[in-house]
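Subject: two folds for Thursday's group meeting

Dear M.,

Sorry for the delay on this. The cluster queue was jammed most of the week, so I only got both jobs back this morning. I'm pasting them in the order they finished. Each block is the input sequence followed by the predicted structure tokens. Could you check whether the formatting survives your parser before we put anything on slides? The first protein is the one we discussed after the seminar.
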Amino acid sequence: MKRVAVITYIALCYSNFALAASVTVTSEALLAQLEQRAQKAAASPTGEYAKDLLDAGKSSIADAKTSIAAGKEKMALRQLEMANIQLTAADAKAAEKELLEKVAVRRSELKKMEARLERYRQGEEN
């Protein structure tokens, strides 16, 4: 009976060690991916239109690095998830602002064309 308990205990210890190692690898891989994403976003219109959210995402990434170095894997994963959300929100905000600018340009073009059409109609009536 003691042998079974010892073997079970050793198996659980090794499985927990393997699980902790996989969490570290996962969080480090996610960290690298998010850092690369933040760098690309900074060079894109997102860096111009959604700087506040982009900076918040970079801050969360830095916090996650600190947590990983301290061995706080759960906290690091939460911070990385928060960074992912912030970067996604920054991308969405930038896309929205770009579309609003395009709509404003198209609206301006439409008004010019309407004015041109009105002048054309007035010219035909005379």
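Second protein, same layout:
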Amino acid sequence: MRIAILLIASAVFVFGAPVDEAAAQFKKRNREPPRSPTPIACTQGGCAPIPAGCRIETGFSQEGMLSGYDSVVCPAR
């Protein structure tokens, strides 16, 4: 009877450890989609990638309060 218990315990130990390790590695995978290298600005017209050479700044209302939207600033051509 002791031999059967030892065999079962050793089988659980030998085959149980790799399953736990594999499950832990599976959980560590990144599930997020890759990010776009182009910055995206959310203006009053909607969210869109900004053109090359432009930058994103914080948008303000005419009263000087934060508008909650981004402003896209491009250099003059």
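Two things I noticed about the second structure. The CA atoms of residues 7 and 24 lie 26 Å apart. Helices lie at 2-27.

Cheers,
T.
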